[in-house]
Design goal:
By secondary structure, the chain is mainly α. The protein contains 12 helices and 7 strands. InterPro entries: SirB1_N, TPR-like_helical_dom_sf.
Length: 265
């Protein structure tokens, strides 16, 4: 099996987002056939291509993708069981036709890519949307909400709905994110789902993947160290927590981490 590191350790534009997401899913679903799911995305894209109008205006392309994905195939956002880990595995999202904003967005991005209609991910706080990769296009797509088309003012309203208070839309909220960042956000979702379920072995596996994406990321090192502590693997816990302190010696939790290291000694 091709490793996650192999697929993600290359220039960002060369990372195959769907393939990378399916590679990490294979750790959870060992019998998963990655090529089968890539072929499914190809087939969906071909079916959309057959329905495209002759004038490929961005709005027309988006409406055509929306109709096929949400009306014909019945893809939808999982509003009833949002924190089900299956929502963060691309194979499950394709099989069940349901997911969370970021995984549904990956399906959409991959179809758009196969139509030579480049789109990018937008990692707004608390929500994930996409937009066509054209200068000043001014429109966004909320894949979680059936491909709802948004303008900038709609994005601000969406933020205020999420946080239940007035929020100003800062320009960097709408900055496109990289393939690495998308994968990192998907894995981070899983990490916290497994933390809440106290499924430490699976959480550990996810942190290992995050550290392949972002080597020596201090927060992931700290969290892995704390996990090793929970699992009573003192040497590994000590190594990670010491490295964390060497990178962030003045972190707010540094005194607590030093105390923990003292206890382990």
């Amino acid at each position: 099996m091709q490793s996650f590191l192999q697929e993600t350790n290359k220039p960002d534009h060369q990372i195959d987002l769907a393939k990378a997401a399916l590679i990490y899913a294979k750790y959870e679903y060992p019998k998963l056939n990655i090529q089968d799911y890539l072929t499914t995305l190809e087939i969906i894209a071909e079916r959309v291509k057959d329905s495209l109008p002759s004038n490929l205006y961005p709005l027309k392309v988006i409406k055509t993708i929306n109709k096929f994905l949400f009306q014909d195939l019945k893809f939808k956002g999982n509003t009833t069981n949002y924190y089900d880990p299956r929502n963060s595995y691309l194979n499950e999202v394709i099989d069940q036709k349901t997911g969370i904003p970021i995984t549904l967005s990956v399906v959409y991005l991959e179809i758009a890519k196969r139509l030579d209609f480049p789109m990018v991910g937008i990692g707004m706080p608390g929500h994930f949307i996409i937009r066509p990769q054209f200068e000043n296009v001014g429109i966004f797509v909320d894949v979680f909400n059936q491909g709802e088309i948004l303008f900038e003012e709609d994005c601000e309203i969406k933020l205020q709905e999420i946080y239940q208070k007035p929020v100003s839309l800062e320009p960097h909220f709408l900055t496109p994110v990289s393939n690495q960042q998308i994968l990192g956000r998907m894995l981070t979702n899983l990490k916290y789902i497994y933390l809440n379920r106290q499924d430490y072995p699976k959480m550990l596996r996810i942190i290992e993947l995050l550290l392949q994406l972002f080597p020596n990321h201090p927060i992931e090192l700290r969290d892995r160290g704390l996990l090793y502590y929970q699992l009573r693997q003192w040497e590994k816990a000590t190594a990670d927590l010491q490295l964390y302190l060497s990178i962030l010696p003045t972190a707010a939790d540094a005194p607590t981490i030093r105390q923990l290291l003292q206890q382990m000694r």
